[in-house]
Structures are given as C-alpha cells and as structure tokens.
Amino acid sequence: MAPRAQLPPEIQLAQRLAGNEQVARDRAVRKLRKYIVARSQGAAGGFTHDELLKVWKGLFYCMWMQDKPLLQEELGRTISQLIHAFQTTEAQHLFLQTFWQTMNREWTGIDRLRLDKFYMLMRMVLNESLKALKTQGWEERQIEQLLELLTTEILHPDSQAPSGVKSHFLEIFLEELSKVGAAELTADQNLRFIDPFCTIAARTKDSLVLHNITRGIFEAIVEQAPFAIEDLLNEVDSQEEEEDDDDEDNEDGMSEDDECKQGVPSGKPGSLRGAACDPSNEPAEDGEDSVGPVLQFDYEAVASRLFAVASQQSTPSQNRKRLYKVIRKLQDLAEGLFPEDDVPEKAYRNLQEEGRDRRTKKRLPTSTSHKSGKGRKEDSCPDLSSGSERMTKRRRRRRRRGSGAEPTGPQEQPGVPGVPRSPVHRGQRSVHRWRRDRHDVGIHTRTGTLLRHRKDRDFSYLFERKRERESAHKHLSRERSRGRERRRRPLSREPNAGTQSQDPGITT
Q1: Cβ proximity of 170 and 126 under 8 Å
Q2: Which residues pair with 420 in a beta bridge?
Q3: Which of 33, 190, 294, 340 is deepest in the core (most CB within 10 A)?
Q4: What own/partner pairs with CB < 8 Å and gap ≥ 24 does 132-138 have?
Q5: What digits encode the pLDDT tens for the residues 70-94?
Q6: pLDDT, tens digit, for every residue of 216-252?
Q7: Beta bridge partners of 416
C-alpha cells in the first residue's frame, strides 16, 4: 500500500481553522500566527499568492463558525492583527490583497444572520492596515501603495467587488482613518488619502458608487468641519496657555513638581498647574454629543482638486453636477461660511410655517384658497380654526344660491331614479366647479353619471342605493343559480309518495 501523501501546511491549517470545535479553531489560529512569523523570517522567503488565498479561506470559515458577539469581536481582532506578524511591507500588502479578494469571492454566499460579523471583520482589518502605516511613520510611498491596492481591489470598475463591500468600505474609511491618524496627520496628508476617491467619483459610471463616495467622504468632511475647526482652536488655546505657564514658572523660579510635592496649588483658576497637581481633576469623558477625533482638511485645496477632476471633458454630466454641489459647500467653508449659517433658526421656522400653509391650502376647496391666498402669506402663524369657518361660509353660500322662493325637497336626477339632483343645473356651472365636485364626491354609477351630494352633505343615500344594488345583484345571481340547478336535475321515474298511479286499480 502506497504511503499517503502529506498535505501542505497551509491546507492543514485551513482545514483546522474551519473545524467544528471552537477549541481546535482557537489552537489553529495561534499556530497560524507562529507559522507566519517563522515563514517570514526564513531564508526561503514569504508566502505566495495562492498560499495566502488558502489561509484566508480557512480564516473566513473560522469566522463563519464563530457565534456569540463577544467571541466574534475577539476572533476578528485576532485575525486582523495577523498583519503585524509579517516582517516586510510587500508581505503585508499581499496579505491585505488576498483578504479583499476572499471577501469579494465569498460575499454573495453570506446570509443576513452572519453579515454583521463580516462587516466588523472588514472594519478591523482596515483599522489594522492603517495602524501598520502609522508604525512606519506615514511614509508617502507606503500610503500610495496601500491606496492603490484598495482602489484596485474594491473601487476600480474592473474589480469583482460586490456593491455591499464597496458601500461598507466607503462608509468606514474616513471614520477609521480619523481613529488612527487624527492626532498626527496633516491637511496635505489627508488630501493625499482622499485623492483616489476624487478620481473615482469623476470617472465612475455607477451611480451607487458616486452616491456613496459623495455621502461617505465629501459630505462627511463638510459635516465634520465645525468640529475640526473647534479642535484646532482648542489646540491653539492650549498651546498659548502652556507658553504662559512656562513664562510664569520662569518668573517664579519654582517648577510644577516642587509645587505638587509641597501641596501648593496654583493661585490662578485658569492655569494648568493646579489641574496637573490635583489627581481628581481628570478630563471628563466624552458625552453623547461627542463625535470623536476629527481630521483636519484644507477645504480650498479639496475644492480645487475636485474641480480639477470634475471639469474634465471625460467626466459624465451627472457626476459633474453632483461634484459641483460639493465644491460650492467646500468653497463656502474655506471662506468661513458654515452650512447652518445659510438657514438661521428663525428663517427655518418661517419655512416650516410656509410649508404648513401650503399643505392646508391643498386640503381646502379651490375657491376659498384663491380668496385667502394674500392673507395667508402675510400671516406668519396659520390659524387652524379658520378652516372650519371657511367651510361654514361655503355651505351657507351654496344654500343661498340653490334656494329659490321657498326651499323644496330634493329633485330626482334624470336617468337615475331615487338620486337627488343639485338645484343648480349642471350646464350653468363652470368646468372648474364641476371638477371640484367630482373630486369631492368621487362616486359614480355604473353608467358613469356623477352623483352630486345634497346641500347638507348627507351621503347616506349613496350607501343605501349601493346596498339596494348589491341586494338586487345577489337576488338575481341566486335565481340564476337555482335555474341552472333545475336544468341539471334529472327527472324522477318513480311516482311520488301518497299519489295514485295511472292505473286506478293499483294503489301505493
């Protein structure tokens, strides 16, 4: 019997990572990390593309088999931190490339119950890849390589990335970049990070990608502008306070450590020395309104870059129109105008009232809305009780118009017996009033004749006539069904009980 061929270590690890037992899967993840460190430091070199695809196949199903949210989060963090086990930048980028290729390949097979944990895995892998850039000092060449990798595998039109992967990536990119590099990145570096999105937004023919880039990248920058400027002002104020404190320390000849040891608090309430000495004065935790770290941008430079790519002849008109709106907002921010300043609170309240008046006019009849149009524009606050008064006046006007010398009973409409006719002849009305009454009533007979309402707006006769028609229709259908049953019933050949036969001599 020939000896069994031994499988490569990558396939063995992938099989153990996709096992049914959680203990075996956790042990396989730990072994995989050790294997990556040993393989990267070896003289033979790192992994190949196919080997890393096999490893990610096992890691994908290892995440697939994991249940319970806390354990899923721990496993996702462990898997995403495997990127730091690679020693070279090329091996790290190959590891990230195979990850995104695996997600693109397996995305359509993920059910909705497992979707959230793979969203979390994508977020964690992106966060760790940005942390790897941070450990290398945000080198320009490394930044360009990472952005080219992400653009090729996710955002490029020739990539096989599904819409779900693209949308989630565009939603989390700016947020994860803020978490990792908000304290270190400059405005020029941040512009370099969003430069590929400017190019894709100008060239893409996918409306969903354009919408997600505009909403997740550019409009997010506009929305975070007040917080970014506030953080910048706070940083400038803190630097000025530190310089003032240093000057005071030089004048007094006493350091902060000596004051803390002696227990002498600072005399000025605004100084930082007392806060530094007092351990109870800790920075307050972020509240619910806090948006976390925010990136700093040169809004004029961002607007110029967007205009450069949007003004090209190859840019589709739909993309150019959408990007020009963003450019105007960024130019306003560069001039110091925030989006909230364009519509103050008082003006916003007036806009709401005008919209409420417009909706009230649509609900009221046409004649009254024309007469009261000017008065409503002058009033800033609509009177809700005026609607009932106008309806009462309209009802009285109809009674006066329809009544002659003496009020008579309702006449029947010609062609429709039992249906009252309006006292005003239909030919004397304008087309506009006839359409209005048709819209108000909205009920027609089978012949198409319009049933106009009575003067007192009593619609009960309409429902009575409807019930009469329904009952007549049911009676007619019942008689027809009985007739069909009689015709289908076979004739009985036996004489009926209690009757005599044709022969008088024989009795039953």
Answers
A1: no
A2: 412
A3: 190
A4: 132/83, 132/84, 132/92, 133/181, 134/180, 134/181, 134/184, 136/89, 138/181, 138/184, 138/185, 138/189
A5: 999 999 999 999 999 998 999 999 9
A6: 999 999 988 888 777 777 777 777 777 766 666 666 5
A7: 413
